[in-house]
Amino acid sequence: MPNKVKEGAYQFLANIFLCNIGACAALKLLEAMRIRSKSARVAGMTGGIIGTGVIGGNTIANYLGKKLIDPCFRNVQESKQTMPEGRHPEALDIGLHTDDVATISVMSGLKWIEPVLPIFYTISGYRAGIGYRN
What are the Cα distances from residue 71, in Å, to 5, 10, 44, 67? Predict the structure, then answer.
């Protein structure tokens, strides 16, 4: 159970929620600067995803895991044996950001990809459900 909670928090913060926040913030900035180029928008939103989601989400998820989740499971033997100190992005995590590329596409005006967005989020949900840890 502790691994599932920590991985769920990691997946939600680093691979889903904060990536979308970063992309939206970048899009707002691009609109305020009146940048209309689709390639510039994709590059800007990708930067928002990397900065806010991948880097910021990783930092926040590890902090919450250490300061909030670990103390909740302090008496659980499993948590001391199997939970590593910190979780860091892996190759598959970076590959999971294809959902972010799809989200960027929708935000840039490619509405045809919107119906398949939930499919891209299934890997993060699966990894959280099994309590994946590196």
Answer: 12, 17, 38, 7
